[in-house]
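Renewal narrative, Specific Aim 1. Our central claim is that a sequence can be written position by position from structural information alone. The example that follows is taken directly from our test logs and has not been curated for this report. It begins with the structure tokens describing the chain, in the order in which they were read.
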């Protein structure tokens, strides 16, 4: 679905085209690289997510449930961590 979104959006949106092309390059590097970018808290990744081709893959309920579980998991790990 993400690749279909990119194929549809790239010709239609010249302003976002560099970001969309970058997503295509990231996805071509595989799932691990794609997931790393999707979960990176840095500025570059945050900007990339503003043009995410993953729109529509999850329902809104699935998205909320995932985010709640992810936040809960990651907040537990930070409490006892030295980092």
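The sequence written for that structure reads:
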């Amino acid at each position: 679905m993400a690749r279909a979104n990119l194929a549809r959006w790239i010709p239609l949106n010249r302003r976002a085209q560099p970001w969309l092309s970058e997503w295509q390059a990231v996805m071509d590097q595989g799932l691990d690289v794609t997931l790393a970018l999707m979960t990176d808290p840095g500025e570059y990744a945050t900007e990339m997510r503003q043009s995410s081709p993953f729109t529509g893959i999850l329902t809104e309920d699935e998205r909320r449930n995932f985010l709640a579980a992810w936040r809960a998991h990651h907040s537990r790990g930070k409490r006892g961590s030295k980092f």
